[in-house]
Amino acid sequence: MSEEAMIKCEDLVFEYRSEQGAVRALDGVSLTVGKGEFVAIVGRNGSGKTTLAKCLNALYIPDSGKVLIDGMDTKDDSHLWDIRQTCGMVFQNPDNQLVSSIVEDDVAFGPENLGLPPALIETRVRDALDAVGMSEYAKRAPHMLSGGQKQRIAIAGVLAMKPRCIILDEPTAMLDPKGRKEVMGIIDMLMKEDISIVLITHFMDEAVKADKIYVMDLGRVIREGTPEQIFNDHEIAEAFGTDLPCSVVIAKKLREGGMEVPRDIVTEEALVDFLADREADR
Description:
By secondary structure, the chain is α/β, with parallel strands linked by helices. The chain has two domains: 5-244, Rossmann fold (3-Layer(aba) Sandwich); 245-282, no CATH class. 38% of the residues lie in helices and 24% in strands. The strands form two sheets. Strands 6-7-8-3-9-10 form a six-stranded mixed beta sheet, sandwiched between helices. The chain has a four-stranded antiparallel beta sheet with strand order 2-1-4-5, with helices on one face. The longest helix is centred in the middle third of the chain and has 15 residues, at 177-191. It is globular and about 65 Å long.
């Protein structure tokens, strides 16, 4: 992971306006996402997470403050196209992102809009479908697929654009456990590709895999830290409506029972390894 910033927000303010007046959805948000870094943004409903995601992709422009994408200011219209190519966006409902009646045509939509040569588009579509494990469905109709498969196609469409950052706005919220597992498998793959990832989620077992977590409430970042720091602060997690990962709950119960479980163990994999090593040493 590079120390350089792929995304930098500085005192970001955004308001929704109506005849009834303005509602401040983001109130002085500052955060940084490094190149190749996996960042999770969590918080209860109405905390401003989705509004923030749309600001990061320049779908919304700040009322004040700055959003810089690889150094490009989202307020500068001349950078808009480059920003959208740099940061791809995956929405909560995949049906809102699918535009064609054939899977491979849907994945090709983005590269076609970039004006790429047909042969290169074909290569990108094939590579993107391979990456998400959906090559065998290339000729299928998207509406015939499961929710998890649709979301994988939506991610493939973003990957075919070759972004250096992907923003995922609660991509598993509408999926069953099998669909969630499929999508998180893709995120695990992206983590190895030096792509910056911003995952907005209310599933803490997804956030626990991130390099860094930002906790939001009422339009503000109220805490930032590593998963170990955030999930060992039970007061923060419980006060703001986030459920602790199962692995963190089990580790906590084991400590209460007298077992010395290190506090830096927060993932299922780390907990299983710790317990297996402990049993082997007995």
